[in-house]
What does this fold into?
Amino acid sequence: MGGVEKQRCIIDFTLSSLLRRKGKNGALLVVYTLVVFLLASVMLFTQAIRKEAAAVLADAPELVVQRIVAGRHDLIPLDYMGKIGAIRGVRAVSGRLWGYYYDPLFGANYTLVVPEEQAGGLGEIAVGQGVARSSMASEGNIMPFHTHDGRLVSLTVARVLPASTELVSSDLILLTAEDFRMLFGVPAGVATDLVVAVANPAEVPTIAAKIARLLPDTRPIARSEILRTYDAAFSWRSGILLAILAGALLAFLIFAWDKATGLSAEERREIGILKAVGWETGDVLAMKFWEGSVISLSAFLAGVVLAYLHVFVAAAPLFEPVLKGWSVLYPRFRLTPSLDFAQLAVLFFLVVVPYAVATIVPAWRAATVDPDAVMRG
Amino acid sequence: MIELLDVHKTFNQGKPNEYVALRGITLAIASCQATVLKGPSGSGKTTLLSILGGMARPSAGRIILSGREITSLPERFLTDIRRRTFGFIFQQFNLIRGISVLENVMLPAYPCGESHSLLRGRALALLELFGLAGRAATRVEWLSGGEMQRVAIARALINDPAVIVADEPTAHLDTKLSGEFLEFMARLKGEGKTIIMASHDPLVCEAGVVERVVEMRDGRVVAGGGAP
It folds into this structure.
């Protein structure tokens, strides 16, 4: 009980002691919080966007087959479907039509996809939020397109896709197969690629190998490979951002190290007084430990809460251009809140523990001198 | 009773700036008396005071406090004895700036593990005794010299020590405040406390409260030494 009271008293003194140097400690707290905020933002954002991508891609086909000509993706004949459908374990095969369209008017790239189920009637399209924003189109408007042979055709916006799917649908335009073939001059009897449904997901690699053997000019791509690519892309992006932040982090470390390890003459004098009036070296160290803990814990908590608000409430306006979005259109959507406690623990040990330790070392050096230095000083 | 047996103190031993502050001091100080260590600057008064009070260890010799030798006790035990037995009043008061009068008074008791509310009550009672109750929440740097002195005395008394140790207590005080300080010491002695002061101020050495003056020069006792 005495030990608890003792620590309570020491914490009490530590807090009034911190309040005395409001300027210095306030500046340190602000910079510290900012660094934790940036690091935690990158961490929360990368984690959430990965989860988001994985959740959206969960509905993606298990296996896609593309035709390769001279090492490049080419249109695939629809009669390949029969050969693939005959492989044991394949549940269904269908052709997909999709491609890219550059709109010179708005300087934007769109992804055009023919959905499996008919999205609308002939001459009608459904557009993603990003397309709607960049072209200022809403339901009922007409969007002009240049066909492969130079004609200008107009398609009607029948629907704008919901914002919740914006991560993958921002630059999307859904249209009918007939409109797609007319726009790009894709003849009947070929598709962009084939989608293969497999009865048992564990057999995907085997079936992919069989397809590659049966049709040597094709390339089967499993869903897990797409997920891996997404994962790598987001890790790479967060890595780039962290590399940019590394300079700021280093500056902070130098600043914090200087503040934490350098004791001013005033602080030395105070440690001397405390020892002279009956504090042990251990009591002085406990005080310094609490001091470091109060600053670093407050900064950690404030930084993480601010990062949470930044990423999940404000939709990460600081990192949007770097971390998410496609080449031209940036999706605008709210991420599903998720916290990875293991990552938070790593962040905690990287920022809180070193600071708390750094405050103790110089105090230990000052506190081990004989208390009579105060009498003679 | 505090006894010193052949106490020596050398600073920076073995280094070019070696300095011998005390040379074989043997002295016994009786309880419930006021003793003054008198001597010019550099005579070793402050060093002897800090060794007497357990703030520094002698280079050689022994210190016996109430029949128990404390010379070679580990820091933890020595600090505990010092905290409970001695109350220190420093030459420049050594109050901690930026915190309140009340907190300054409570500081020496923090490591004792006493309940915060009890401790606060005791500190407020002491401030009341010294006429500083109304200044409890004031920061110490806003106090007058006399008030600072009384806060320093209150702080020295917070752990109810048996011995009050004061180093040049009147060095920064005018005659009126010095007189006031000596009155406080007389009151404390009346309550059964032992007072040990280092001073070369005649006002202190010749004060009525003082029973014994130990004269020092060049690290040696030259008059008033030996048994009380």
Q: What stands out?
A: Residues 105 and 155 of chain B are 4 Å apart (CA to CA). The helical segments of chain B are 45-52, 75-85, 101-106, 116-129, 145-157, 175-190, 202-205.
